[in-house]
Amino acid sequence: MTTLLPSPSPSGAAPSPVVVAHRGNSSVAPQNTLAALESAWRAQAHAVEIDVQLSADGEVVVIHDDTVDATTDGSGAVGAMPLAALRALDAGVTFSPAYAGQRVPTFTEVLDLLAARPGTDLLLELKGSWATDDARRVTDAVDAAGLADRVVVQSFHPVTVAALRDVAPHLPRGWLVHQAWDRLLEVAAELAVVACNPYVGMVLTDPALVGRLHDAGLRVMTWTANDAQQWDGLLAAGVDAVITDRPDRLAGWLEGRAARAAGAGLLP
């Protein structure tokens, strides 16, 4: 089973959340590029989080925004551009000239990279609303790559999570949320998700949310936390994973915290 879904910590053990690199190691390399994913792997992140969309000709590509404007040297809507046009863009130079030549990756390229680099799992977000036939393009690729035991699929959109449930019930699913829902637990049960993944502000404002989700049998992977003050609050709340733009710093912070606790005799 993927390390994204750890077993509950033994009674009395210090919390040790999974470190998830948000869009790769996106503080040091251009987000959602192969360079960012390679950097996250080298930083020994437990998992990487990426975003996928469909090109105009139905290819699964790795990019967050609806347009290419913010992360490439081009402009236009992702869904209006065929794969060849997306691949012609430079997805690195706007981050730093040192990354000039990075491309918008295909999903297959990411799966190939992860298959060759064991030890790092994948938290996979489908952006927007996906029909079942389109969602199957993603889940079939995961299965073909032999990575079903290293992937959790997720979306903000219940219709997309439902499509993933219907086409690939064997893949664990998460539901991303950014604000309170009146029927949060009921919807999570209807979608048959294993994780409910709230915005960091939701947890810091209402730490008891984590306990309510845990009581419902759900894992909690919160996003996107980038500083020690946030990390401290999330650990106190008991989250299972922290999604961060700074996975190397978070990993070091967790190691230092564990070492201090051990030195003070707080760990078994």
Explained architecture:
- By secondary structure, the protein is an alpha/beta fold.
- The chain has 10 helices and 9 strands.
- The protein has helices spanning 34-42, 83-87, 107-115, 132-144, 158-167, 184-191, 200-205, 208-215, 228-237, 247-263, and strands at residues 18-22, 47-54, 60-62, 121-126, 151-155, 173-177, 195-198, 221-222, 241-244.
- Strands 1, 2, 3, 4, 5, 6, 7, 8 and 9 form a 9-stranded mixed beta sheet that branches.
- Helix 4 (132-144) crosses helix 5 (158-167).
Quickly give the structural class.
Answer: alpha/beta
Radius of gyration, taken over Cα atoms and rounded to an integer in Å: 18 Å
- Number of E-state strands: 9
Q: How is the main sheet built?
A: 9 strands, mixed
Strand content: 15-25%
Q: What do the pLDDT scores average to?
A: 94
Quickly count the helices: 10
Extract low-pLDDT stretches.
Answer: 9-14
Q: Which bin fits the share of residues in helices? A: 25-40%
Shape: globular
Q: Distance N terminus to C terminus?
A: 26 Å
Task: Give the H and E element order.
Answer: EHEEHHEHEHEHEHHEHEH
Labels describing this entry:
268 residues, alpha/beta
